[in-house]
Write a structure and sequence with these properties.
About 60% of the residues lie in helices and about 5% in strands. By secondary structure, the protein is mainly α. It has one domain (about 5-165). Strands 1-2 form a two-stranded antiparallel sheet. Strand 1 (about 35) and strand 2 (about 40) form a beta hairpin. Helix 4 runs antiparallel to helix 5. The chain starts with 10 loop residues before the first helix and ends with a helix.
């Protein structure tokens, strides 16, 4: 069975965009932060970017793939441990981290209006900010899909280890 080439993600474009951000930002430092139960912030961001590009290709959306990938890779670029013991950080993290991610990224690189929208709106409906572009909507949806997958994958690993070795 032949795979449909039209639904494949352009891995060269994906890699070039990722590598460029790694050279111009502190994106690789996000490996140090845990996001969802054992998934690093960097792994989560790469997952969201890849799934966003895959869904866009699959649906044959007419979008800007570079802005989509950049926005997805930077959507959680807040550069702090969201699991910190500081209760104030925990309480407001879900609503405030998109703005913090935009500010952190803008300190290092130029962001387009669309990239800012992608980052700011990825927490809809929690932030009540409706995505304005197709790219923003796809990243918002992909973030939810990846978060659920990461959550249940890591929980099932822990359950399996407890059951297998208890």
């Amino acid at each position: 069975m032949r795979k449909n080439k039209k639904s494949r993600v352009d891995l060269v474009l994906f890699s070039e965009t990722f590598n460029q951000l790694c050279k111009t930002t502190r994106l690789l430092q996000t490996r140090a932060y845990t996001h969802h139960y054992g998934t690093s912030l960097l792994r989560h961001s790469v997952n969201v970017a890849y799934v966003s590009a895959f869904i866009s290709k699959l649906l044959r959306l007419n979008i800007d793939y570079i802005q989509l990938i950049r926005g997805a890779l930077l959507h959680d670029y807040y550069l702090y441990d969201c699991h910190d013991k500081n209760e104030e950080n925990k309480k407001h993290h879900l609503r405030r981290h998109p703005g913090k991610a935009v500010l952190a990224a803008q300190d290092e690189i130029f962001l387009t209006k669309k990239e800012i929208d992608i980052i700011l709106k990825h927490m809809f409906p929690i932030t009540f900010s409706l995505p304005k572009s197709k790219e923003s909507f796809v990243v918002c949806f992909s973030d939810k899909v990846c978060s659920i997958y990461e959550l249940f994958t890591n929980i099932s690993k822990k359950i399996f280890l407890k059951v297998s070795f208890a």
